[in-house]
Amino acid sequence: MDITATPVAGGMVVTLQGEIDLYSSPRVRERLLGLLKERPSRLIVDLSAVPYMDSSGIATFVEMLQQVRKQQGALRLVGLQANIREVFRFARLEQVFAICDTVDAAMA
Amino acid sequence: MDITATPVAGGMVVTLQGEIDLYSSPRVRERLLGLLKERPSRLIVDLSAVPYMDSSGIATFVEMLQQVRKQQGALRLVGLQANIREVFRFARLEQVFAICDTVDAAMA
Amino acid sequence: MGPSSLTVIFPAEARWLAAIRALVEQSCLLTGFAEEVTYRVKLAVDEACTNIIRHSYSSRSGTITLDVEVGNGAMTFTLRDRGKPFSPEGQSDLPRELKPGGLGMPLIQQVMDEVEYSRTPGGENLLRMVKRLGRN
Amino acid sequence: MGPSSLTVIFPAEARWLAAIRALVEQSCLLTGFAEEVTYRVKLAVDEACTNIIRHSYSSRSGTITLDVEVGNGAMTFTLRDRGKPFSPEGQSDLPRELKPGGLGMPLIQQVMDEVEYSRTPGGENLLRMVKRLGRN
Ligand SMILES: Nc1ncnc2c1ncn2[C@@H]1O[C@H](COP(=O)(O)OP(=O)(O)O)[C@@H](O)[C@H]1O
Ligand SMILES: Nc1ncnc2c1ncn2[C@@H]1O[C@H](COP(=O)(O)OP(=O)(O)O)[C@@H](O)[C@H]1O
To answer: Domains in chain D, please, with CATH?
Structure first.
């Protein structure tokens, strides 16, 4: 799992690369919680290089969403591959998260 | 394993797609032997969509090379991925086969 | 070709999950499942293993046995562990409120055609999941 | 993390080889092998399984057991079968003339850091192959 964070005007873009499962999600969680300590107004997570995500990944993003809401910030998920988008749909979380096609759309 | 054959001026281009191992190589062998019955002056095998090949694949091509030589034809292998090219090198067969970068080069 | 099965025995550790998924994926493709179905099946088996690691063994050491059976137009996955007993009643609905968790069992139910938990006389948990060809 | 190992038991049938390779591939990546090395290791294990199917069991039915051990900067693969006894002497050189075959054993030797055949008192063939991190 590769995680890179880039500050942008009004927030932070985090790019994840690799599969998210029980093995890798704790590291994703820790890193995102660390970034949220800086209270970015907007956290944009680019998932276009994530070919697999299980419920431990979704649980991680639910936790981030709750944290972001407490901080009155925003979380946007970007570039979900079709199979992963389906998992969000199965979980009935597709409307709960702000899901955008591109980083540009998420910054708008 | 997907195998498609296209007649071209002066020969036949065969495109293979998928991994070549003990499971799939018998089918590759049968198909190529069938095509060789038509005695093409040149058999061009496009391997650019073959991500894996083991020694049963190499053995198949050695057999085809022997057959083609008997028929006074030519066999050219095209588009070998780096890992597969290395297996030919390991087997000291890189110089034995006519290996070309592209189908165009193989037709020249 | 007729039915055939493979067995894999691995430590209840998250680091092996990627290898198990890769094995399941290739078995699905061998059976003739489409790629989207393969993804779902991979997910369901992964979720079941994750639950054994986290809940049955409570992240302590233990062994998981997975049988993968192909043939007859279906795949059957049987997971065995020696962790604590578990009854799945009431775990197959999605959570009502937003919370981080509670999705694994509903996902398994949504993907698989049959899901069956039992405790063997020998003291093993047994989870049997069937996915048939030609279904989503 | 410390060493850990996984065991897979499968029928000596070519259709399972893709699943075995996928498992080996993920185990290599987990260990930290580069992609080219991973390809070679996958190839070597595949060649060893292919030989068991074709030669040890002569394409008749039988079972193959593969142990994959990770950790301590190396991977160890142990293959067991109950086919006919085999002694590998003189099989590790490339063939001198052009012929379809005879490449499997030389490829295994070229890829692995250690290759060891033995026959167990229980009547099993045992092939142990070690690949160390940081080598080509
Ligand atoms: N294999 C298992 N062994 C013991 N308990 C389990 C097992 N699988 C699931 N459970 C129980 O069922 C609950 C719901 O599981 P699940 O839907 O996968 O969500 P989560 O694992 O996120 O809690 C778990 O919290 C756990 O209490
Ligand atoms: N596991 C095995 N059991 C029995 N005989 C074997 C085994 N592996 C290899 N051999 C013998 O060694 C020979 C060389 O093997 P190999 O280099 O893989 O080439 P090939 O399999 O193409 O003949 C085989 O032809 C076979 O006689």
So the answer is: 4-132 (3.30.565.10)
